[in-house]
Structure formats: C-alpha cells, structure tokens
Design goal:
- It is a single chain.
- By secondary structure, the chain is α+β, with helices and mostly antiparallel strands.
- It is about 30% helix and about 30% strand.
- The strands form five sheets. The protein has a six-stranded mixed sheet, with helices on one face. Strands 3-2-1-14-15 form a five-stranded mixed sheet. Strands 4-5-6-8-7 form a five-stranded mixed barrel.
- Strand 16 and strand 17 form a beta hairpin.
- Helix 8 packs parallel to helix 9 and helix 11 crosses helix 12.
- The termini are far apart.
Length: about 500
C-alpha cells in the first residue's frame, strides 16, 4: 500500500513515499534550494548565440538561463520551422520574453528555459506557443481516444497545444471546456501582469511541494494514506481529495515528535547521502557522483552463493539492478549514468539485466533511456535531469578537499613551503614567522626537528612556527623581519 509522509511544518519541506514501509521516493526542498521548475518569469535576452541556436536570458536568477530556438513560440508557429532557420529571425538581444523553467540550475550550468508556457490539471495540459494536440496512450477505448483528439482540435486556438490526459477519458465535453477556459484565463492573466512589470520579474511561482503530493496521489494506485504535519496544507489537500473524488485517507499529525521519525523514515533518509548501499544478499553498491556523470560500482561483498560462480554473480547483479533503479529515484540522480556490474560470461544474462533495469524504470516519472553494455561490461543509461540531485541539495563541497575527496599530503605541503622559503634566502631578513599545521611542521623540520638547523642555514633565517588548529595540511607565511621583531610577535 502506498503511503506518503509530508513534513511541511519547518522551512525545509520533505515528502516521502513508502510502499510496504520501504522508502520509494524522497523530495527535499530547502528554502534556499527550492526547485524553480514550473515557475514563470518575464525575462530579457542578454546574448544571442547563433552557433548554438540559443539565447541567454536574464530572468532574475544568479546565472542566466538557457533558451533554445526550438522552445521559442515564434519559431514553433512560423511556416519556416524546418529546423534550418537562424535564431536571429525569431528573437533579438534586449527583447523581453515570457519564460518557464524546465530544469533547475545545476553546478556551473544555468537553468534551462522554455518560451512554451505550460499549465496542467490532472486531466488536461495547456501549452501556449505551439500548435499541437496529444491524447494519452493509456486510454482503454480507442474510439474515445480518437473522439477526444477531434474535440481538442475543434476547440483549440492556432497558438495552443493541448494534451488530453487519461483521467479525461470518461468526462464530458463541458468539463473539458471548463478546464480549458480556466487555463486560458490563467495565461491571459500572465500577459496582463507582464505588461506592467519590468524584466526580470517573477510572474508565477509554483507551489512545488503541494504539486508533488497531488501528482503522487493522481498517479499509479488509486488509494493510499497521507500523513501531514502542516494544518493549512492538510485542509487544502483534504479539499482537493474531496473535489476530485480520490480514495485517499489523509490525517493531520500534530504531536511533538518529528513526523519522519514517528513513521520510521528518518533513518532511511540518512542512508540516502552515503556512498555505499548494501544489498540484502550481502553485495553492495558504491555511488560516485560527478558533474559530468555518475558511476555506480557493483560488488559481491559478503555474498558468496551456494551454486556455480556465474549464477552467483548473476544473482548479485539482479539484486543490484533493482536497487540501482530505486536509488536513482531516491537520490534524484540524473544525466549520464554508468553502472559497472560484475562481469558475467553469459551474454544472455547481460540482456536479462538490461530487461530488469528497463522494467524498474517504468516506475520512474523521469524519462530513462537504457543504452546497453559497453565492451568493458559497463551499462550505459541516461535519466532526464530537471532538478539537482539529493546530494547537491543536502551537501556542499568540502572546504578542505574542494569536493575531490582527497587532500594534499603533509609532505607535498611541507616541500612547497620549503621551496617558497628558499626563494627568500638572499633577502636581508633575519627571521620568518610561519603559521603551519602540526603534520606539515613535522615533515618540514624532520624528526625531533633534526632538519631545522640545515633548513635555517639554507634560507639564512631563523624559523618561528605557530600552529593552525584542525587536520588540514596547510601553511601561511605571516611575516619576515629581524629576530627581535619576529620574537616580539611571540611574546
């Protein structure tokens, strides 16, 4: 049974989705890193890039957003939309545009934007700036699917795109028109608002966490339970459940205990930022995220199996394939993903691993493409990126190692300091004051400071040391001067 736990009472919003008590999906939205996907802005073109068929847009964020030519309404609606027309024919520098965020800023990259403004309900998606009609492929009745396509074509305007969702299948045409009219009014309101605003300005801000909860209740299983600790959100969602006739049980939790702890979710969340994930059979996964791609290494670990080697390795890989798919959703890992499964001799087993990954990917709301195994036995796949990963949301680069996971050794830092001191050997100063970490000082001066006399003779200066607290291997040359001047600094 699906269960959602919504921790919305504090500034950081968290929503967990569980199936039979196991965490299947996690959304964390810190106020400073809240997703802007779906937000609509009045932006200004700052730079046109003909070589990339794109423009940069100042929409008020720290980094300018990226807008491709194919996402501009004037390109989509013109008769010249043959894929060869220059972007300069459709937009110019300094022009104001309505834009919507489709992918958040990640790392050094700015947000990805579209000029095709989209609003959606559970049963109908409205897109302004494109001539298009789509009907859900999940309709059970092919005749109704055809009928709804004709209805949408009949009522849409030339500059509108409409997508009829599955839940519209058994609704009336009047319900369709009511929802279409409502979405059109929202867009017209944006245009009126934009006319009185200066660029850059935000025109529409999506309520991301409530949208996520509603989307989850609308997809998959028709029933479930929702526990929530914010009373206003509870009332709003309860109203939505009643209006949309959803068979979801909702409860407001007001006790003093953290709702995630109360429902045994907190411990599962803490595991989500760890590099190692253990499998039930004793194998384990290692996750290495970089800006370019993510590498996942599969290891047999404690699992030795009770049958032939090939069957043992295949069993580990089977468990790993299922867990990888779950972890990608939980950690929101996107982009290029490389999975180093344990090498198997049987090519049929490789295909079965691909089939498992594809089957599990169906449950993911992000588009996944499984490419296949390379000659080195690494499975290649991609997952659509729309927002930062859980690791990006919950952590920052280490100030010591700058995110590399490694720091310079005491030897490397000590010898660098030695070379820098040698550069000053011909100056008239009698002494030098160096602030240094203890580990670096031990290397610089040698065991029991046995190298101190030699080094002081080489640089022709007396060395005074003070120590930097902490474990970072570092130094700072504070001052050169006479022995009397430097000595006074240590009194």
């Amino acid at each position: 049974m699906k269960k959602m736990i919504a921790n919305l009472a504090s500034r950081e919003k968290r929503v967990a989705v569980l199936e039979n008590g196991v965490l299947r999906k996690l959304e964390i939205m810190p106020p400073q890193k809240r997703s802007t996907v779906g937000n609509i802005y009045l932006g200004k073109v700052t730079k046109v890039l003909p070589g990339m068929d794109a423009v940069f847009i100042d929409y008020g964020a720290e980094k300018n957003g990226f807008l491709h030519r194919d996402e501009i309404p004037s390109f989509q609606l013109t008769k010249k939309s043959d894929g060869k027309a220059s972007i300069g024919q459709f937009v110019h520098q300094g022009e104001k545009l309505l834009v919507q965020v489709t992918r958040d800023e990640t790392g050094t990259k700015g947000a990805k934007l579209t000029g095709l403004i989209e609003f959606s309900t559970e049963s109908l998606v409205y897109i302004h700036g494109i001539d298009y009609v789509g009907v859900s492929k999940k309709f059970k009745n092919n005749d109704l699917q055809k009928q709804w396509r004709e209805t949408a074509l009949q009522h849409k305007n030339p500059d509108e795109g409409l997508i009829v969702r599955t839940s519209m299948e058994n609704e009336s045409e009047s319900v369709f028109l009511d929802r279409l009219t409502g979405l059109r009014e929202i867009y017209k309101g944006l245009e009126v608002k934009a006319a009185s605003f200066k660029a850059p300005s935000i025109l529409y801000e999506r309520d991301a966490y409530l949208d996520m909860i509603i989307s989850e209740m609308s997809s998959g299983t028709a029933t479930g339970e929702l526990a929530i600790d914010d009373f206003e959100a509870y009332l709003e969602l309860k109203k939505w459940i009643q209006e949309n006739r959803k068979e979801w049980d909702i409860s407001h939790v007001s006790g003093p205990k953290n709702i995630f702890s109360e429902w045994n979710v907190e411990a599962q969340v803490e595991k989500m930022v760890k590099k190692i994930v253990w499998l039930e059979n004793g194998g384990y996964l290692i996750f290495e995220e970089t800006e370019a791609f993510t590498v996942i290494d599969v290891n047999s670990g404690k699992f030795t199996g009770k049958v032939a080697k090939e069957a043992t390795l295949y069993a580990v890989n089977q468990a790993a394939a299922k867990e990888v798919a779950r972890q990608l959703r939980l950690r929101n890992i996107s982009g290029i993903i490389l999975i180093d499964f344990i090498n198997m001799d049987n090519s049929r087993h490789e295909q079965e691993i691909i089939d498992i990954v594809k089957k599990e990917a169906v449950r993911d709301e992000k588009r996944i493409q499984v490419i296949g195994f390379t000659e080195l036995g690494i499975l290649q796949m991609t997952r659509k990126r729309t927002s930062p990963s859980l690791s990006e949301m919950m952590s920052v680069p280490c100030p010591v190692c700058s995110g590399s996971g490694k720091i310079e050794s005491p030897e490397t830092v000590a010898f660098r300091l030695e070379r820098e001191l040698l550069e000053h050997r011909k100056t008239d100063d009698e002494a030098v004051w160096v602030e240094v970490s203890k580990a670096v000082a031990d290397v610089l001066l040698g065991e029991k400071e046995s190298y101190r006399p030699t080094l002081e003779e080489l640089i022709a200066k007396k060395i005074y040391l003070s120590f930097i607290p902490g474990s970072r291997n570092a130094y700072s040359i504070k001052r050169f001067g006479s022995i009397q001047e430097i000595g006074r600094a240590f009194e």
